[in-house]
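INFO  loader      accepted 1 record
INFO  loader      residues=265
INFO  predictor   begin
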Amino acid sequence: MVSSDQRRRQLAREKFERQQQRRAQSRKRKQRNTVIAAALAVALAAGATAFATGAFSGDDDGKQKVSDAGSEASQSAEPTPSEAKSPEPALSIDKKAAYSMKLSTNQGPIAFTMDAAKTPRTANSFKALAGKGYFDGTKCHRLTTEGIYVLQCGDPKGDGTGGPGYNIPDENLKALGKPAKDGTVTYPPGTVAMANTGQPNSGGSQFFLVYKDTKLPPSYTPFGKMDAEGLKTVEKVAEAGVTGGGGDGAPKKTVTVEKAVVTKK
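INFO  predictor   done
INFO  writer      dumping tokens
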């Protein structure tokens, strides 16, 4: 039989994954709307040019139609993948080295070590983003305190929908061992792992800090380990709970990343 505690953890995991998927769908809708708006703008521009050059013509019933040239212009408005997304930073880190990322926050320092040998693409991305000041001034927008015990950060929008414009591949997924019968592995306290959309290889800039044993599917790249002081900072935030009560939402103690720095150890 499944115990009530196991059932509670299962429900928490399912809720976590559903919310990740909803946020991914929200991002896709926004991207699609941006594409549609761009296509409409080009179509309108093409229409204005066509009107000025006499490309509009009247049908027998008096209705106007767009010439083939105008139609082709509007169809070409949708960007190609290379135009629609930013490129992933070129790999420039030392794969044999370890890197330290320090987050100076208003609640205290949170530092963790990244193993470039096991997660080179992830470590490289974080080094590049931190070097550009990408994380500076961002908030850790999500805290979970029931079933799953994480503080989620790295979103410049602060609502779970932001990202750097590119995705990085999953890495190091076997590091946490063989999944249990329920398909989960344990992310121990101090683990720093990538958030994603629920789909493979969909990580961006968002990551979560584990402050208590958390069972999740082995789908989230574990790429860092917090030091004792950093873990204590996150535990302090978790103890204060979620804004408005409940087990999932914005932390009651607002966490703002004032500065993020990555250095080679």
